Every structure is written in structure tokens, then in C-alpha cells.
Amino acid sequence: xxxxxxxxxxxxxxxxxxxxxxxxxxxxxxxxxxxxxxxxxxxxxxxxxxxxxxxxxxxxxxxxxxxxxxxxxxxxxxxxxxxxxxxxxxxxxxxxxxxxxxxxxxxxxxxxxxxxxxxxxxxxxxxxxxxxxxxxxxxxxxxxxxxxxxxxxxxxxxxxxxxxxxxxxxxxxxxxxxxxxxxxxxxxxxxxxxxxxxxxxxxxxxxxxxxxxxxxxxxxxxxxxxxxxxxxxxxxxxxxxxxxxxxxxxxxxxxxxxxxxxxxxxxxxxxxxxxxxxxxxxxxxxxxxxxxxxxxxxxxxxxxxxxxxxxxxxxxxxxxxxxxxxxxxxxxxxxxxxxxxxxxxxxxxxxxxxxxxxxxxxxxxxxxxxxxxxxxxxxxxxxxxxxxxxxxxxxxxxxxxxxxxxxxxxxxxxxxxxxxxxxxxxxxxxx
Length: 431
Hints:
With about 425 residues, the chain is an alpha+beta fold.
């Protein structure tokens, strides 16, 4: 993304400036067009509590920022091109990065963690390119239930029914600088999937943050509540976030060798496989996300890998050399893309550095395999693994890792202290 120092186009009255918070949610401010030049020069002040709040905006004392430090300002600096928002006349959008009062990266900024990992990749003379697939539900705003019924995955009749909202999502999001490759109904009523074209890794992560935020806005204008929640309905398909990895140098995909996975690609795959289990806390960040990890759900339950196999955690995709890649399939649609990509890429690079080799390929049903490491099925287990992970400590830094662990523990405690409607229905009159 280029520097955003040009004045907004004629007729623009408002600039929306956005960035990703601790959970990869889009936050920011709306700026009068006449003040845009000043924002480009000096930045936009926001409290650094933005990186110490949960998804409900609850704030708590963390080692880095807390009531004693006064939750001081950080500065949001425009970095992206200014794009018109098609459904808001006179309004444009730009993406931003964050710096501290000293104009240096913040230790608790998830985006900064990804920047550091990508600098390491650059030092190794690799450009990391990432393609993303995001699943989400389009629900009735009033009932928060699907308006349609039945499983019609890839169904073109269902796609046509949803075109009044999916069509604008594809067209308008592309116009805002997020190139949409395709969309389709997914494996549940109301569930859809959208593929974003692959690009440099930081750009890809920025686009995911923007995509999720703007899809919720655009869905609302069409009478839908769009949700990326991992498992909104226990008996229905969960929302996944599939990440496609490739490494490039001098315009060539280094993970490809005549249409097959190269030796370097195997090392990268092995690194992902080795560290996949221990970094579960960032691929599934809430207790709800672990409800998605069920056999025969198209969500992986272990770190097996295979070629074009949707039962594994790491799916190798072959073809022409530009298309060869590794798809990591365990991420939930509501996770933070900066944290997810930072750790995944770091794991892959560690595999290259240490010349790791993956296990034997899984050619059948990975759900029935016992020899591969299981992925955690609860957040408490994932937290325990995160505390012991040297990779997570190195990539995220002590302060950010501790904030993420604290948030996870708060979520575990909150959910554990609820009496659910199902419990009332099942137990109240029968005991």
C-alpha cells in the first residue's frame, strides 16, 4: 500500500481511518476531509488501550498499559490509498499503521509482530505471499438466524438468492482495494465463503482486517448481520480462516519444483507442522472457537499433511509453479490475522533454517489417524502450550504474549461462570 498524502477526491467530506486492534477488529475514527492533511502529517491520537481490550471493549490492567500508566496515546498513521466507500456518498477509507509517542513500533501491536517476521523473511531473501479464505454467516438482523434453510454448498440457486448482498460484497470490497476472487454458499444455511486474492503477507493481513469490518457494515445496509464468530450454531458448520502460503524470490515461487513441492517447500511445511499445535491459542482465540474442532467437520483435528486432502491440517496444493502452495486450515474466522500469520510464517521459516522434514504424507482420512499430534480442543490446553512455547515468546514478545494469555484466561473464566439456557431447560425442572 502506498503513502496516503494526497488530498481526498473532490466531493469527499469524510475520511474513515482504520486499523486492527488486539483481536484484529477494525477500529479508528472518522475525520473531516479538511483535517485529512494534518492527520497524514501528524497522525491520529488514540489510546493504546486499543491493544488491551477484549472483543466487547472491556479493559483490564496489563503489564504494558494499565490504570497506573494512564493508558496514554499512540498515533495512527495513514499508509493506505484512499478508496471511496461505494455505499456512503462522500466518504472514503484508508488503512493505517500504529506508532508510539516516540514514533517507534509498539511492543503490543500485533501488526508490528508480523512486520518483524516479514523482515526476517526479507533478510533470507524471501517475499511471503498469502492467499486467504474466510467463512462467515449472513443472518437476519432481528432474529440472528439464517433466512434460508438447508445445506447448499456451491449451490448456484442459493448463490443467486444471496446475490443481492454477495454481489455488492464482491464488487464494493474490490473497489475498496480488496480484490475478491470468488464467493460461494458454504456448508450451512446462511453461511458463505469469500476468497481474497493472494498478495504480499502484510497487505493480505491488512485486507482481512478491513474485509471483516466492511463486510459487517455492508451486510447491515442490506438487512443482514454478518458474523465471523467461529461456531455460532453447534450443529452447523463453523467459520474457518484458511491461509495459503508461498515464498517468492525474483518473481519465482520457491516452494515449487516443476509443479511439485520443492525441497524448500517441504522444509517450510515441516516447520508449520512442528509448531502447529503449540500456537493454537492464536488460531482459535475463544472457548467457542474450540467447538469447531470436531471430526468430519472439514476442520482439522491434528497436524497431519497431505496433497489436496481436506481432512488434514496442512493441505499441499500442486499445479503450475505459480500455484504450488501450502494451505493451513485450522484457523478460525474470528482470529487476529496479524498474530496468525506472524506465527505461521515464523514456523515455516524455522523449518527452512533447521532443514526440517515433514512426516509421511497422509493419503487417506486424517480424522482416523492416531500417529499425528492432536490440535487442542479447549482453550485452557492451548494457553498452557502457549506459556511453554519459545516460538511464541520470540515472535510476539513477552508483553504481547502475556496480554493474549490474560485475555484467553479471562474468556475461560467468563464462560465457565455462565448458566446457559440449555442448562436451565435440561436441569431446572428435572432435578
